[in-house]
Amino acid sequence: MDASLEGIRCVMLDLDGTCYLTSLSGEVTLIDGVLDFLQRCDERGIARFFLSNNSSRSVDEYVSKLAGVGIPVTPDEVMLSTHDAISWLKELGATRVHLMGTEGCHSMLQDGKIDTRSDNPQFVVIGYHNALSYTDIAEAAVWMQKGVPCMGIHGDMNCPSVDGGLPDVGSFLAMFEAAIGVTPVKVCGKPQPSMIEWKMDELGLESNELCIVGDRLVTDIEMATRAGVRGVLVLSGEATREDLSSAPQSPDLVVGSVDELLR
């Protein structure tokens, strides 16, 4: 596959590190060429979705955030690790959890008919929380030590930003393992192929008609490999060319940024 993306009917784009970078203060900086790339997708009839492990925002919040930086998007075009976590909990019949997460994450689970502040939780759910307090950590730890199983909405160790990597869900899970010896029974989100397979079925896509575009080998490209679809690595976020020499993942294409695609 080359940068023309010949034969591709749908692209699923990571957000942080692929479309933009976010500072510690929350300021969003678009990566050069993103808006032009999305316009080329629209002009060529290529469906585009935004795929993120970042569970700190609800779908509605993402729609507003993206609109605020000039990216037009509908709620159906936003696919989050939170969706994958809700689906997994529903498969198990879970309706009561203790969530360590933002209000946006609480709202998504509650919209999915899952009580996130239960006094009798079936799971402790760990999400990305950028306003985390020690009380939040302690409450989750207490439930785990009472025998309530823990699950992670995703497993990213850090969230890319213009200021460098910031601790993410994977780091929180590692903290609980170090502190109280508890490991999660399930980690959702990328690179789990379940995050995208339902959309492939809905759109009737063959595996060679979809490509995942992202900046992380261990999530974006690993998910593409597991799902059997094309994987495009952009070097605008976390991964570097040096990483490719030692990584087990092998992208179908490596470009500097999305600006090089569909030219």
Defining traits:
4-stranded parallel β-sheet, 263 residues, 2 domains, globular, 34% helix, Rossmann fold, alpha/beta, 6-stranded parallel β-sheet
What would you say this structure looks like, in words?
With 263 residues, the chain is an alpha/beta fold. The protein has helices at 34-43, 59-68, 81-91, 103-111, 134-145, 169-180, 194-203, 217-227, 241-244, and strands at residues 10-13, 20-22, 28-30, 47-52, 78-80, 97-100, 123-126, 150-152, 158-159, 166-167, 186-187, 210-214, 230-234, 253-255. A 6-stranded parallel beta sheet has the order 5-4-1-12-13-14, with helices on both faces. A hairpin with a 5-residue loop joins strand 2 and strand 3. The longest helix is centred in the middle third of the chain and has 12 residues, at 134-145. The protein is globular, with a radius of gyration of 18 Å. It starts with 9 loop residues before the first strand and ends in an 8-residue tail after the last strand.
- CATH topology name of the largest domain, in short, is Rossmann fold
Name the structural class. alpha/beta
Largest β-sheet summary:
6 strands, parallel
Q: What is the CATH class name of the largest domain?
A: Alpha Beta
Report the C-alpha radius of gyration, rounded.
18 Å
Number of domains: 2
Which architecture name of the largest domain does CATH use? 3-Layer(aba) Sandwich
Helix and strand run: EEEHEHEHEHEHEEEHEHEHEHE
Distance between the termini: 13 Å
Low-confidence residue ranges = none
Q: What percent of residues are in strands?
A: 15-25%
Helix tally? 9
Overall residue-averaged pLDDT value: 95
Q: Output the CATH homologous superfamily of the largest domain.
A: HAD superfamily/HAD-like
Beta-strand segment tally: 14
